[in-house]
Write a structure and sequence with these properties.
The chain is an alpha/beta fold and about 475 residues long. The chain contains 11 helices and 17 strands. The strands form 2 sheets. It has a 9-stranded antiparallel beta sheet, with no helix packed on it. Strands 10-11-13-12-14-15-16-17 form an 8-stranded mixed beta sheet, with helices on both faces. α2 crosses α3 and α4 packs across α8.
Amino acid sequence: MGALRSLTLMLLVTMVAACAQSGSGGHVAPPGLDGAWNGVLVLPNQQLPVGITFADGGGTLDVPVQGAYGLPLDEVRADAGAVSFRVPQLPGDVAFRGSYDRGADSIVGTFVQGGRELPLTLRRGEVPVPPRPQEPRPPWPYRAEDVTFRSGDITVAGTVTVPDTPGRHPAVVLIAGSGPQDRNEQIFGHKPFLLLADTLTRAGYAVLRTDKRGIGGTGGTLNSADYRDLTDDAAAGVAFMRGRADVDAGRIGLLGHSEGGYLAPLVAARPDSGVSFVILMAGPAVVGADVLLEQNRLIAEAAGAAPEQIRGQLEFVSTLVTLLRAGDLDRARDLYREHNATLAPEQRRPAAEADYYTSTNFRSFLNYDPAPALSALRVPVLAFFGSKDLQVPPEQSESPMRKYLAADTDADVHLFDGLNHLMQPTSTGTIREYGTIETTIDPAVLDYVTGWLTARVPPLPWAGR
């Protein structure tokens, strides 16, 4: 679930849709420089490996620890040994200036963001990808099939995994969090939904995971989609699974992460949904606007912002939310741009981000109250939080979740100590840490979810686990 990131971390590129096209404005790189280069930016509390690939007079930037790949370079130049480029998709007017050292076969220079300069030496070779020891790798002990189905006037694309044994299996439909999520819910180099699908399928469940609107193989545009649209997409996924010969139509449930925890109860609350269980992973239990304000406060505090900065940030967010909820989009855009202009150069967000924060999609989040849908649930429900989650703080949502599920005779609300929004073990819970943690989802969470599920919706016996 995204936050208004005016207190931007260096090179934090969450919500930037990476594009694989290379910028071309500039001189062709000299022969011999084409190919992969890598170096390390030394930040106050972190070493950040970056990769640069030069090709055909342009190039791309990769920051694997932040899950950013293929960000296009612009104004790529190399004259008389000088090497320079810009990265227009990143905030703070990111640029590099350096020179090629032929003897050392290296590019030595300065990385600039928002006027701040950091030394950066690039050497040949691919940038190291951070270890992801939990990421499943083929061959799979089950069937995996890429699928498409209709949701209204768009095509939804995804992947179904099914235990490799005959029979009709219980099924789980995964619903991703906010923003442009692919079917693996890839973030900072982690693939939480790939891991969840693998874990659940090995435990005996068919699993559907999909690309969100406008992402991957799914049609439509995310910014123009409201919660009815996204609920329709998830419900279409349930209907698709119900129509499969290898799925038990009477035992299909939902697992929603973050914003997906808003959407899953909406799907289940539909009279014809046929949903037989719901799992909410860091799903909020209060109005979206309240979540936004609290996560901004916690993230700013964790980033070490001064009290006056935090007050200013919360005043800005509160005013912006008021304008958005009143439908005054022009004033909201102006306020966002004016606020952005007051920030230090390295903290300024791309101008196009104002379009996201005034979009139908974001306003659906702000206005949504989960209380009615949660209170209406009468199927087995598991809702769990991480104690160090700064994006959906348990201090804000755990108690209301228990209140709204109180009438459900089979509801379990659980708090995992020391875990963040992605259910990773964490020291601080900060977004900065997500990419540096090797664990994708704490094994204790995976065990708890599968244990809870098998006790209520037993899988068919099979030997593929």
